[in-house]
Amino acid sequence: MGKVIIGISGNEQEFPTKSGRTYVTVASELADGVRQAGGVPMVIPMGTPDLTKDYINMIDKLILSGGQHVDPSLYGQEHLIDSNDYLLERDEFELALIEEALRQGKPIFAVCRGMQLLNVALGGNLEQEVAHHWQDGIAGTSHRL
Fold first, then answer.
1. Does residue 138 register a pLDDT over 80?
2. Dihedrals φ, ψ of 87, to 5°?
3. Average of pLDDT values for 136-140?
4. Containing H/E element for 143?
5. Helix boundaries (H) for 16-112
6. How far apart are CA 134 and CA 123, in angstroms?
7. pLDDT band of 6, cuts 50, 70, 90
8. What's the first-to-final CA gap in the chain, in angstroms?
9. Which structural domain range is residue 43 located in?
10. For residue 127, which phi and psi values (nearest 5 degrees)?
11. Out of 12, 48, 118, 126, which residue is the most buried by the measure of CB atoms under 10 Å away?
């Protein structure tokens, strides 16, 4: 049996210092963690929902990475916070990834935004205003990936 292929959902970010180009990114800790566990990380760039079946066919497991806020329209709410840190195209693509991974019975591991999106995909909603839910931060690594 070959190594396990772990798909990691990629984010798109523009880097002004790189001539304004947009790059597909993932946190290096996610890819490092997959390699350290003996797997092969595969970054899945944001695309159109019709590509998700092909991507999920290529992988054994899926990691939904962190990033922007999940668009509140996806769980029936209006934008309540003053932020432009949304990427609806990513939300829609990753919702299609989730649907296809569930259909194929592939395990999903979700980190931060990824867990929020998985919650929304399964019919949940989110609390947009978290100021009153704040917890003191942990200095250093709080857990190993």
1. no
2. -145, 85
3. 63
4. none
5. 28-36, 52-58, 88-104
6. 25
7. very high
8. 24
9. 32-74+86-109
10. -95, 110
11. 118
Encoding tokens for residue 2? 């070959």
- Both structure tokens of 36: 């350290």
Q: Is residue 99 part of a domain?
A: yes
pLDDT of residue 81: 77
For residue 105, the tally of other CB atoms under 10 A from its CB is 6
Q: Decide if 114 contacts 9 (C-beta within 8 A).
A: yes
Is residue 50 included in any domain, yes or no?
yes
Q: Which amino acid is at 125?
A: N
Number of folded domains that form the chain: 1
Which residue type is seen at 109?
F
Of the ranges 7-11, 26-30, 77-81, which one carries the lowest mean pLDDT score?
77-81
Give yes or no for a contact between 88 and 75, defined as CB atoms under 8 angstroms apart: no
Q: Which long-range contacts (CB under 8 A, 24 or more apart) does 127-135 make?
A: 128/69, 128/72, 128/77, 128/79, 128/80, 128/81, 129/80, 129/81
CA dist list (Å): 112 to 63, 103, 126: 11, 23, 12
**Is the CB of residue 3 less than 8 Å from the CB of residue 17?**
no
Residue 46 lies in a domain: yes
Task: Let me know if residue 64 belongs to a domain.
Answer: yes
